[in-house]
Amino acid sequence: MSTPTALVLRPRAAKVPVNIIANFTRQLSVMLINGVPLLKGLETLSTQDEYPNFGMVIEGLAQDIHDGCTLSKALSMYPQVFSSVLVTMVQVGEQTGQLEQSLGIVSSWLEREFQVRQKIIAAFTYPAGIFGVSILLSVLLFTTVLPTFAQIFREMNVPLPLLTKTVMGVTSLVCNPIAWVVGSLAGVFAWRSWLKIWRTPAQARVVYSGLLQIPAVGALLKHGNLTRYCASAEALLGSGIDLMKTSRLAGQASGSPLLIQDSKRVGKAME
To answer: Whole-prediction pTM value?
Structure first.
């Protein structure tokens, strides 16, 4: 007896932009409302040019549906593409017989999620650009202008103030290729350590609490995560999901380690 396709975990798929998933759920909802069968709708959407990379995922969903799998189960086979919040909302729509309405709610939620992300990215773009230009100009200064002054000071053989000695030392370090190699390796190690810390809930909460203390950045993160939490909670409640489960799933969708922990506490308090 062959194993059903829906029971086999699909190979890891690349993440798909939120706006693409929002368009997909919106179009699928419209098709179902107009009487198009689910399988036919998925097969049609898989051939659309607007889904160049996402089309393979839709084809996989269509195959799972053809093999007798529910849409929510098929979506859960792609955890890198479809979040647990989305899967749960679709599952509730299937159980209540209102799948098309649930997909419409999902698409509205994803559209708001995309707008929030764009606003956060736009808010960070300007300061990140200024910081990047400052770093670039500093590197150019230390590698082109200051080495000449360092050579002049060495030839003069005169005592230098501590600040000048420090600047000359940094100049020598920046111009040393070995320092760049060591710095690159340190950067890779720091990035891997950051990812490891962020995947550990307790450590992630400590780091996130520190980020919230940064002026402007902290306020932006806090309000952005709260906006995502409220938008997710609205969509989940609109789909008919109970309040305890809504609190937990909305916390996961917020992206804040603190909200994830607090939402779990809220859920337990309501039990």
So the answer is: 0.71
